[in-house]
């Protein structure tokens, strides 16, 4: 008998078989097609009262989020008016915050500046569109 034992019989170890789950993944086939509108850019409504954030990413898959934040802030604030702040979203994306919707919408149409620096600017859907309704009780 083991000295650490409490005196009861020791249960025999049971080998459990792992269940194999069926592969529910589909191949590379796509079951749906994403709906897109041609020449449509999402913009903030004029009566938007919260800070407006525009995401900017490189057209060449460059990691602009890893660049020096002071350099990025200087680049955007010298060329674009109405910027309240610049923050890193991830390695490939930077968020530019505007206090009012008019300068944010104007920045989206600055094709010369964006093309010169090879950037793509867009408004994320969750900031302008209603995606969920919560019922409070």
TrEMBL record:
Name of the protein in its database record: (apollo) hypothetical protein
Disordered: annotated segments: 1-25
């Amino acid at each position: 008998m083991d000295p650490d034992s409490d005196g009861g019989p020791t249960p025999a170890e049971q080998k459990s078989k792992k269940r194999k789950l069926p592969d529910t993944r589909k191949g590379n086939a796509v079951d749906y097609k994403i709906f897109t509108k041609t020449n449509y850019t999402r913009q903030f409504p004029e009566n938007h009262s919260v800070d407006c954030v525009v995401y900017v990413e490189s057209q060449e898959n460059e990691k602009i989020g890893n660049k020096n934040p002071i350099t990025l802030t200087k680049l955007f604030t010298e060329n674009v008016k109405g910027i309240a702040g610049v923050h890193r979203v991830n390695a490939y994306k930077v968020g530019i915050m505007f206090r009012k919707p008019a300068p944010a919408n104007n920045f989206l149409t600055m094709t010369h500046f964006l093309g010169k620096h090879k950037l793509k600017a867009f408004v994320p859907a969750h900031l302008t569109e209603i995606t969920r309704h919560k019922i409070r009780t």
